[in-house]
Amino acid sequence: MSNDPIDRLMALADAARDGAYAPYSKFQVGAAAEFEGGHIVTGANVENGAFPSGICAERNAIAAGMAKLGPTARLKRIAVSARDATGVDRDAPPCGACRQVIAEHGYGAHVMFRWEGRAIERPMSELLPFSFVL
Ligand code: THU
Fold first, then answer.
1. Residue 1: its pLDDT value, please?
2. Residues 6+ apart with CB under 8 A from 2
3. SS3 115
4. What pLDDT sits at residue 6?
């Protein structure tokens, strides 16, 4: 495993795909959320036969991290990784609902994902400009 903290977070997201429950889409997604202070919590997508009841990897990781660390926790970085039914890595920028949740817990966070086969990193503010806040 690389010593680069960015690469390490992506490697954790890659590994988290093993926890996916994706019998319907066969699209396994893993996420590794790093919070301020260095805590890292991973998650995977967990689907449901009543399709809208399933949840994405990013939201699972963030919810688990928030529940563990408490309401003052702030997200610093999140890496997302996906592979298809054949085991091939797939591009996986976070979906719209996940962007909204990432923005809530870390508008200043950086998001890593594969795009055109290559891991890239973008500030959350670039992925969701004019973000809704209450
Ligand atoms: N999925 C995620 O886990 N994260 C995203 O940002 C988009 C999609 C999951 C949901 C579903 O289980 C599968 O990928 C196919 O849509």
1. 56
2. 8, 11
3. strand
4. 74
Residue of 86, 85, 94, 83 lying closest to 23 (CA atoms)? 85
pLDDT of residue 2: 72
User: Residue holding tokens 């992925």?
Assistant: 127
Protein residue whose Cα sits closest to atom 14 of ligand 1: 27
- What domains can you pick out in the chain, each with its CATH number? 5-127 (3.40.140.10)
What is the end-to-end Cα distance of the chain in Å, rounded? Answer: 40
Instruction: Report residues of the chain scoring pLDDT below 50.
Output: none
CA of 133 to the centre of ligand 1 (A): 24
- Residue closest by Cα to atom 8 of ligand 1: 56
3-state helix, strand, coil in the chain (%, to 5): 35, 30, 35
Q: Within 10 Å of residue 42's Cβ, how many Cβ atoms?
A: 22
Give the integer Cα–Cα distance in Å for 81 and 11.
9
Candidate of 56, 78, 112 to mutate for ligand 1, largest count of ligand atoms within 8 Å of Cβ = 56
